[in-house]
Design brief:
about 280 residues; alpha+beta; Arc Repressor Mutant, subunit A; Multidrug-efflux Transporter 1 Regulator Bmrr, Chain A; nine-stranded antiparallel sheet; 10 helices; about 40% helix; elongated; DNA-binding transcription factor activity; MarA-like; DNA-binding
Length: about 280
């Protein structure tokens, strides 16, 4: 209940200030976590980046005002933080499919996005194994993809398929002196509210690699590690990532630290594959 109250307090603050200045420090303060943790947690729980949620809510309210008042478009643009009527019109048309002037015409449809609220749901009945580890800095090499965060659940599997079809994964294993049992790692890094990079790779060999590969250094961190045994076709690491933010973080005493996220695989003694989600954490 405490976590729900904090999250809803943060959302209430955003809603109360959609026509003014939204201070992200105050949003995070109400949620009792860092700005970094709140923005990442919000996007995982809601499947929408925080800045996109705010944009949609502002344009929803602007649409209501256009339908129900005679406010000037220039005043509406200024009210919701746009530096000119033209930039407001582009954003409005991008979401609603019509211009602000057209939205005033009787019978013209526009979109409405309701405020988010966090409610109690029945979950957490399934066990979730994890461990906390400290690890020294690590250097990886591989091939990367730059993608939009909200599209990543589609673009990343496509990227894996492409790398396997074009034998790029084989080249990575060969450069890392692996064999047919070698399992590749992946890392998400250079993340902001909209974009991120995703690398498929391996640990850097002592002699280095050729310039065709990208190199990423992951600093020493404390990690929460969540293993998943792949036993059924429907088993997916995607489900673990969702549960980390909706089930584990709210009750763990930790929050997300800045930095990259990892996925690692290894073989169990019985021949089954284990996939692990590695998340950088700090005590809150």
């Amino acid at each position: 209940m405490v976590w729900l109250d904090r999250m809803n307090s943060a959302i209430n603050y955003i809603e109360e200030n959609l026509d003014g200045e939204i201070e992200m420090g105050e949003v995070a303060r109400r949620a009792c976590c860092s700005e970094y943790h709140f923005t990442r947690m919000f996007s995982f729980i809601t499947d929408i980046p925080l800045n996109e949620y705010i944009r949609r809510r502002k344009l929803t309210l602007a649409g209501f005002e256009l339908k129900n008042s005679d406010i000037k478009i220039i005043d509406l643009a200024n009210k919701y933080g746009y530096d000119s009527p033209n930039s407001f019109t582009r954003a409005f048309q991008g979401m609603h499919g019509v211009t602000p002037s057209e939205a005033r015409i009787l019978g013209v449809e526009i979109k409405s996005y309701a405020p988010i609220s966090f409610l109690i749901t029945i979950n957490g009945g399934i066990g979730m194994n994890y461990r906390i580890v400290e690890e020294d800095a690590l250097t990886l090499f591989g091939i990367s993809l730059t993608t939009r965060r909200e599209e990543s659940f589609e673009t990343i599997p496509d990227f894996w398929n492409k790398c396997e079809e074009e034998r790029i994964t084989y080249k990575i294993v060969e450069a890392g002196h692996g064999n047919e049992r070698t399992l590749l790692k992946s890392v998400l890094y250079d993340m902001d509210n909209e974009m991120m990079k995703y690398m498929i790779g391996l640990d850097m060999p002592e002699e280095g690699v050729s310039d065709e590969f990208e190199v990423v250094t992951i600093p020493a961190k404390t990690w929460a590690v969540f293993p998943l045994v792949l036993e059924k076709p429907e088993d997916s690491i995607t489900s673990i990532w969702k549960r980390i933010f909706t089930e584990w973080f709210p009750n763990s005493g930790y929050e997300l630290d800045e930095g990259s996220w990892q996925e690692r695989c290894h073989w169990r003694d019985d021949g089954k594959m284990i996939v692990e989600a590695w998340v950088p954490v700090v005590k809150n």
